[in-house]
Design brief:
Layout: E1 13-14, E2 17-21, H1 24-35, E3 38-42, E4 46-50, E5 57-61, E6 73-81, H2 84-97, E7 103-106, E8 110-116, E9 122-128, H3 137-143, E10 146-147, H4 150-160, E11 171-178, H5 182-193, E12 196-201, E13 205-209, E14 217-220, E15 236-244, H6 247-259, E16 264-267, E17 270-274, E18 280-285
Parallel strand pairs: 2-5, 6-9, 11-14, 15-18
Antiparallel strand pairs: 1-15, 2-15, 3-4, 4-5, 6-11, 7-8, 7-10, 8-9, 12-13, 13-14, 16-17, 17-18
Helix pairs in contact: 2-4
Length: 287
């Protein structure tokens, strides 16, 4: 297996999240009404949505997609904004439209809003505090989470003034997965792919990142140790995208994965692979 000392370039980041959905129209309506995303491209079975820049969410319709019982799956994906008032814009919109929220949390390094889309996909809306204010993970875990400063966020949004949409800098911040085997997924994401483990909650979850970020991809066994891999034909997460700085970086990462025994498939879009729990991952070069 390739050395775990292999590291992805610091500029590596997440790109679009693709979801297999059963009702594309209702899902697109949710992402538009609840989060303000707009359709940027549309085809016979695909709606790509975002804020005028890179696609954030791609909805791929499969009316025959099934709920396959308990298996590895998406825990949540994170859409992140660059400024606190923009997180306040999301909160104001959600409160005004009456969508149900699952959580309002201050994670110390970031503030977050949690909810689910109509087909049960977990979503985190996030604003990172400046890196200069970040503390070691050990301190964050010891302090635990705090309640979100709802009033402060709403005031920050009001002070920024009315605006109809969020900026094109809004991005996919991180991905968090339910998996069956932490060690197998760590061997994939760290040992072969080249992400760095930033913290581990022993026997529960592992967080990984490039470039010193708190986490780009995390995975946990909270759905059950040894849970079956995500089956093909199920609705939910279809694939995530990891954007690397260059085509050479994509090729090198693909070769490491293949050398470690993980299946890869190359195309014009990049290199597609699946982690040990069946989650699809596209390695794509930055445009």
């Amino acid at each position: 297996m390739p050395s775990s000392d292999v590291m992805l370039p610091a500029a590596s980041r997440l790109g679009p999240i693709s979801l297999t959905v059963r009702n594309r129209a209702s899902m697109a309506e949710f992402y538009a009404q609840a989060l303000g995303l707009r359709i940027q491209d549309e085809g016979p079975i695909l709606s790509s949505m975002g804020f005028g820049g890179e696609d954030l969410v791609r909805l791929v319709e499969d009316k025959g997609a099934k709920e396959a019982g308990r298996h590895a799956s998406l825990y949540h994906f994170c859409l992140a904004v660059e400024s606190r008032p923009d997180l306040g814009w999301w909160l104001r919109r959600l409160l005004d439209t009456g969508f149900e929220l699952d959580g309002l949390v201050d994670h110390r390094m970031a503030e977050a809003i949690y909810l689910k889309d109509p087909e049960g996909n977990g979503i985190e809306l996030n604003w990172d505090r400046p890196r200069s204010e970040w503390r070691p993970w050990s301190e964050w875990l010891a302090m635990g989470n705090a309640p979100l400063d709802v009033q402060g966020l709403l005031e920050a949004n009001a002070k920024a003034g009315p605006r109809e949409t969020l900026p094109v800098s809004t991005r996919v911040g991180h991905l968090h997965l339910h998996v069956g085997d932490l060690k197998a997924c760590e061997a994939f994401y760290c040992g072969a792919l080249g992400l760095t483990k930033t913290v581990e909650i022993p026997d529960q979850a592992v967080f990984t990142a490039a470039g010193g970020y708190h986490h780009h991809i995390a995975f946990n066994v909270w759905a059950g140790r040894g849970v079956a891999a995500q089956p093909l034909g199920a609705y939910g997460l279809r694939s995530a995208t990891l954007v690397l700085p260059s085509a050479e970086d994509v090729s090198a990462a693909g070769k490491r994965l293949a050398a470690a025994g993980f299946g890869t498939e190359s195309s014009q879009a990049g290199v597609f692979t699946r982690d040990p729990s069946g989650h699809g991952l596209l390695l794509a070069p930055a445009n």
